[in-house]
Amino acid sequence: MKNPFAGIAALFCVGILIGKLINIPFFYIGASAIFLILLASWFVNKRFLSGSLILVAAFLLGFASWQNLSYKSSHHIKYLIDKLPLPCTTIGVVKNNPLSKQYKGRQKTTFVFDVYSIKIGDRLTKAEGLVQAVLTDREVFNVECGDILRLKGVLSVPPGPTNPGGFNLREHLLKGDIYAVLKIRGNLNVEKTGVSKYSNF
């Protein structure tokens, strides 16, 4: 092979594609890839064998990288939402610069919110993951990137397209690793409790 790195890159990409289809724990795939790399270094004088082991390891590393990227803990927001809207109170940090615009005589402010905890009824639990927060009121609430907020609203699964071939908000948000929408009606349901130390950065 004139360019061995091309083969390694190709198999790495194939591993990512297969990783999307098959779910195997990251540990087993990663450990197997490391073992094959060590084995290839042992047979470094046997170019065909060591090269073959490196190619298989590249495939496994691609597979493992996707598994690691897509892994979500049991506290992730995707496991806490249901098909039905869920009234809740969340605490987290604003992750981007909010966008405000007028909508039907009200101010609609949208921002990405990184959830730390969620309270459903009387139950407060640890949570993680990104949601798209949508705040509506007659007045704009001054929200900035890095603000730590307590939000009271309704959590739901992002809607899919209403018409065939129409805009799919759910798929659009998933590209940004956002699994839920939190609708907050009224500025009284927003409380600023602090500022993240990483906000300036």
Name a few traits of the molecule.
single chain; 201 residues; alpha+beta; 32% strand
Assign the structural class, choosing from mainly alpha, mainly beta, alpha/beta, alpha+beta, or little secondary structure.
Answer: alpha+beta
Along the chain, the helix and strand elements come as: HHHEEEEEEHEE
Residue share in β-strands: 25-35%
Low-confidence stretches: none
**Oligomerization state of this entry?**
single chain
- Provide mean pLDDT, rounded: 80
Percent helix, as a range, is 25-40%
What does this molecule look like?
- A hairpin with a 2-residue loop joins strand 2 and strand 3 (106-120).
- Helix 1 runs parallel beside helix 3 and helix 2 (26-42) runs antiparallel to helix 3.
- The protein contains four helices and eight strands; from the N terminus they run αααββββββαββ.
- The model has no long low-confidence stretch (mean pLDDT 80).
- Strands 1-3-5-7-6 form a five-stranded mixed barrel.
- It is α+β, with helices and mostly antiparallel strands and 201 residues long.
